[in-house]
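Here is one chain, start to finish.
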Amino acid sequence: RLMELFWPGPLTLVLPSKGTVPPEVTAGLDSVAVRMPSHPAALALLARAKIPVAAPSANSSGRPSPTDAAAVASDLGDGVDLILDGGETSVGVESTVLDATGEQLVLLRPGGCAVEEIEARSGMKVLLSGGAAHRSPGTRYRHYAPRVPLLLDTDADGIARAAAETDGALRIAWIGMHAPEISLGEGVAHPGLRILFDSPENYARGLFHALRVFEERGAGLIAAQWPPSEEGIGRALRDRLMRASMKE
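Its structure:
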């Protein structure tokens, strides 16, 4: 039912493994995560392969996910023989991952397919936590993190302390949906260190790219607006920002 409603698209389903998938793919678990992408280039690749394709994310572990070919090349460099450039991603954040191995659906990772939409269209209830995060990638405590510290605007004191420790010389970048309501000092005045989005969807679409841009432009700290709502894509956006801001 979920496959009929949401495939191809940003929904990954964790299903019981029948033992035909190699343990190198399942990490030794008794389940396997499957998805059908919607991008024409990915679908064409699968059609040419004529077999299921197992592959990790196209980035270094823990780094912000790549949203274009340039980010893949920056992270992996000579570690890959070929990059298939399909342009920028349309959603930005990764797929939603649901554990469908039991009697009830369990959300392992929020993503591009909103929980509210899944429930409304399928008539199925999705549990928001189940203690089985090991079944899904991207659920380690610190993940999606830039090379410079990222703090949320909910930690205004932490941002102020970071700026004070450098006597105001710290270049602080800002990302969010509106201008910061907290003091960031003079380091954020440069227009290249401020990226604003006009909707939660665009915030999610541009988040990872913005984090990489700020690295390249020499930001010493990234301050990010905490999304005002966790409805729709907001749940995934909050998850990515929370994990990117963790120290460990």
